[in-house]
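Field log, afternoon session.

UNIT: design team B
ACTIVITY: writing a sequence onto a fixed backbone
BACKBONE:
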């Protein structure tokens, strides 16, 4: 099985790139961030503070998360409900960053992610795929862009989905998530030593795909 790990901060375009590459190569795309968002959504619905680890842990086995591929698109199911359309709000985004710092949550989801990679050729994106989840991935990419560029992309994505969040709020959320993701004690956001560093601030999605496809050809 072949694994490709794409890491980087929020809004760098990891998911867009990973989906396009998966479609091009015929691999399974696994959006790990969506898993954390789904966990966050469950706790938010239950009225549990996603920063309160002591309140979260007793309920860690009270929900069931499932990843399904429907017409080539990953869908997240929470206790049997398709929640894909509910996990991209700013509240859930920050909640996902909060729950991701809890080691027990990460261990629960990493087990699922590794099982998927052991059975399929996969492209997986997140914060610590190359460093922790799939340290033996054949290709590791660390994708980045300026906070302003990333916030602009997320703002446009939200607008297209009918989510009206001011750009300034999206940018502030992006900066806050960067700080939390890089400073967390367990599996923080960082580039693997053998990752290819790619700043796509001024690159289109198509240009980024061409660049990475070239890297894949080199590894055979």
């Amino acid at each position: 099985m072949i694994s490709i790990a794409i890491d980087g901060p929020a809004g760098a375009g990891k998911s867009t790139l990973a989906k396009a590459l998966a479609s091009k190569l015929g691999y399974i795309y696994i959006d790990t961030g969506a898993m954390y968002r789904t966990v966050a959504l469950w706790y938010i619905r239950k009225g549990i503070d996603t920063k309160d680890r002591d309140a979260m842990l007793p309920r860690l086995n009270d929900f069931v998360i499932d990843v399904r591929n429907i017409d080539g698109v990953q869908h997240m199911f929470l206790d049997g409900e398709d929640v894909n359309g509910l996990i991209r709000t700013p509240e859930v985004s920050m909640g996902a960053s909060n729950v991701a710092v809890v080691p027990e949550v990460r261990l629960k989801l990493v087990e699922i992610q590794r099982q998927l990679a052991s059975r399929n050729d996969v492209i997986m994106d997140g914060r610590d795929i190359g460093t922790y989840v799939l340290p033996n991935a054949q290709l590791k990419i660390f994708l980045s862009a300026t906070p302003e560029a990333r916030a602009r992309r997320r703002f446009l994505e939200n607008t297209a989905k009918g989510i009206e969040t001011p750009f300034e709020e999206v940018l502030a959320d992006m900066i806050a998530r960067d700080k939390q993701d890089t400073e967390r004690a367990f599996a923080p956001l960082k580039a693997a030593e053998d990752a290819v560093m790619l700043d796509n601030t001024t690159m289109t999605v198509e240009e980024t795909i061409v660049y990475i496809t070239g890297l894949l050809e080199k590894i055979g």
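LOG NOTE: The chain has one domain: 3-219.
NEXT ACTIVITY: expression trials, pending approval
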